[in-house]
Amino acid sequence: MNWRRPTLSLSFAVLLLSVSGTASAHVRYVVDSAADVKDALGFLLDVVADPFNAALLGGGALAVVAALVAYLRFRPAERDFDVLRETLRGYVDLVPWMLRLSIGLPLVGAGFAGYFFSPIVHAEARVLQVGIGFLLLFGLATRVVALVGLLVYVSGLLAAPALVLASEYVGGFLALVLLGGGRPSADQMLQRVADAEGTLYGRLDPVHGAASWLNARTEPYDDYAPTLVRLALGFNFFYLGFTQKLFAPGPALAVVEKYDLTAVVPVDPGLWVVGAGLTEMAVGFALFVGLFTRATAATAFTMLTLTLFGLADDPVLAHVTLFGMVSMLFITGPGPLAVDDWLRERASVDTPRSETDGETYSGRTTN
User: Fold this and answer.
1) What topology in the membrane does the UniProt record assign (predicted)?
2) Is residue 286 part of a domain?
């Protein structure tokens, strides 16, 4: 091995980790079938046994860890991040609307396209999915519709376990059950009219009273909406990285060959698959535990974007929910029960924090 090899290893490691999202799509969405590798563990060991591959993977991991440790130690541009967090806090009342769009649009598209939540599960459920999707887009009876959507998804999952590929819907539906329609929504408009004194609608409509009751029951748990989204996304990314890359590398290798991804980064196809799988699993783990949540959400958004540009026939609608949910986490932060909370507490002991640095989230609006 000549002297250039280690230098190239570190350079390629950073590059590979930054673009490995291109191979991190739902691979079964873009390849009909592919002969799987019989011995997945043997495949993984063969890839990492190559010194060059090991240097790339190890160098990339070390670079990421070093960057995180350096940030925690020196905290550069801390004032910039405080301002960013304060700015994002001004968007939280729009989070329910963002969630409704990111779930409603894919459901309408799925209904008209003839698949059930995920493009690999085909079912004649056009009216059901389009109905749920449009009601979410309008923001009409949002909590009830989200609960119905969750029950429909779970029922479908029991009949077709492959729907676990679309498990992000669970977090999205549960978050909408907590938050309601937000604004702008039909729920908010009708509630305002119903609550106003002397309105005919307020005297005739029996629904707004039940809506107010449900609103009061869910309000104490608003802060957990980002937590639910984070857990669902973390599971989804980790599951996809493990099951569609490391555990079953055959279809992922077919994706690398189909789109000539080795021309983008000239490395072994096996390294493409392993690198993409490990990156996706790392992103999933970080989201699940709430570690550097906003940065991880931005990384996930970049991976999804590269996927859409890199895989020309990847179904865009199937990823809209993921786009919307990672965007939500970028705005809200991790919510309760996150490692970020512990890191923030540790930082507050060493350095007094500004009053604008809190991460408490509430997407509640007066409906």
Assistant:
1) Multi-pass membrane protein
2) yes
Give the distance from CA 32 to its chain's centroid.
25
Q: Using alpha carbons, list the distances in angstroms from residue 220 to 155, 179, 216, 271.
A: 28, 10, 8, 47
Instruction: Judge whether 293 lies within some domain.
Output: yes
Question: What mean pLDDT comes out for the span 132-147?
Answer: 95
In the chain, the number of structural domains is 1
Q: Confidence class of residue 30 from pLDDT cuts 50, 70 and 90?
A: low
Give the list of residues 6+ apart from residue 165 with CB closer than 8 angstroms, or none.
26, 28, 118, 120, 240
The DSSP annotation for 230-283 comes to HHHHHHHHHHHHIIIIIS-HHHHHHHHHHTTGGGTS-S-HHHHHHHHHHHHHHH
Q: How far apart are CA 128 and CA 124, in angstroms?
A: 9
pLDDT of residue 360: 56
DSSP state at residue 35: P
Tell me how far apart the alpha carbons of residues 257 and 254 are, in angstroms, rounded to a whole number: 5
Contact 367, 188 (CB under 8 A): yes
157: domain range? 17-356
Does pTM top 0.90 for this prediction? no
Q: pLDDT (tens digit, 9 = 90+) per residue, 334-359?
A: 999 999 999 888 877 665 544 334 45
10 falls within a domain: no
CB 282 within 8 Å of CB 290: no
Asked whether residue 12 is domain-assigned, the answer is no
User: CA 130: distance to chain centroid?
Assistant: 22
Ranges 71-85, 103-117, 182-196, most confident: 103-117
CA 214 to chain centre: 27
